[in-house]
Design brief:
Elements (H helix, E strand, L loop, with lengths): L2 E4 L11 H12 L5 H60 L3 H27 L2 H5 L2 H16 L2 E6 L7 H22 L3 E9 L2 E8 L6 H7 L7 H10 L4 E7 L3 E9 L7
Helix pairs in contact: 2-3, 5-6, 6-8
The chain binds adenosine-5'-triphosphate and magnesium ion (MG).
Magnesium ion binds next to helix 6.
Length: 268
């Protein structure tokens, strides 16, 4: 039997029923107001404030990542490329002298630094996401993770996905975490990613055929150790009015499904 966990916390509205109001009136006339109601309203208010803060933090983090990714790529990456070209021309004039092998070593070190800078920049924020959008960015990321994790992959999507940039970013980050988990924990041979638009909702599904895990235990552990991935996926979706479900069966595999309203959350 599969282990299904709804990671989507739904917001509760501050609804005051007529009967509650009547009770409040009675309470005001006689005893002081019911502390339970005040406490609940206070709780709702602070939960809403926390959500706003969370949304701002995630937004600020994306902007910062974008800035650092560009600087790494454009600034440091290009400086390193210029150094490499200079070294190559010095090596040519060094001929077969003793210096030539030292210069060659330096060229290789610079090459390594260029690759590292490119990887870091891409990990922070793939420019594909900004330049070409969610579908090409996801396809590219899936291929990259498949190579890294040594699994086969399949990507199915609609031709045109018309989501706001916030929704695209959230969807990409959720897929990124799900695929990181596949690489790190699943030992899967095959991974399927589906991205579809149904009515006003964007649905992303990442399915692996790996070892699976007990979702309830993993969710209960959140906050007790360093595992933040499942929580982060949930927060990303929830802040846009969506939700994430994780279904996993031991020795069969795991499915992560995110449903995000295309319009994203209105308030903020
Ligand atoms: N696709 C998967 N296959 C098997 N186990 C998984 C999978 N996804 C998650 N898990 C299990 O659930 C746990 C919690 O995942 P979560 O992403 O929250 O944390 P993490 O990956 O360990 O750390 P991080 O905070 O860096 O993401 C993992 O440690 C792993 O045991
Ligand atoms: Mg993780």
């Amino acid at each position: 039997m599969g282990d299904v966990e709804d990671l989507g916390g739904r917001r509760r509205k501050a609804v005051t029923k007529e009967s509650d109001r009547a009770a409040g009136r009675t309470a005001r006339r006689g005893a002081p107001p019911e502390p339970a109601e005040d406490g609940e309203q206070e709780l709702l208010r602070s939960r809403e404030q926390l959500q706003k803060l969370s949304r701002r933090l995630i937004g600020a983090q994306e902007t910062e990542r974008q800035r650092i990714a560009r600087e790494l790529h454009d600034d440091i990456g290009q400086t390193l490329s210029a150094v490499k070209m200079n070294l190559q021309s010095i090596r040519r004039s060094a001929g077969a002298s003793a210096l030539a092998s030292k210069i060659q070593e330096s060229i290789e070190a610079v090459d390594q630094a260029i690759r590292r800078v490119r990887d870091l920049s891409v990990a922070l924020r793939p420019s594909l996401l900004d330049d070409l959008g969610l579908v090409p960015a996801l396809r590219w990321y899936l291929d990259r993770q498949a190579q890294k994790g040594g699994f086969r992959c399949r990507f199915a999507t609609d031709d045109a996905i018309e989501a706001s940039s916030d929704v695209q970013t959230a969807c990409f980050r959720i897929a990124q975490e799900a695929l990181n988990n596949v690489v790190r924990h699943s030992g899967a041979h095959e991974v399927k990613v589906d991205l579809h638009q149904t009515d006003d909702v964007l649905v992303l599904t990442v399915t692996d055929d790996g070892r699976g895990f007990d979702v309830q235990i993993a969710v209960d552990r959140v906050g007790l150790d360093a595992s933040l991935g499942l929580l982060g996926m949930r927060e990303r979706a929830r802040l846009l009015g969506g939700r994430v479900t994780v279904e996993s069966t031991l020795r069969k595999g795991t499915t992560v499904r995110a449903r995000i309203p295309m319009a994203g959350a209105a308030d903020g």
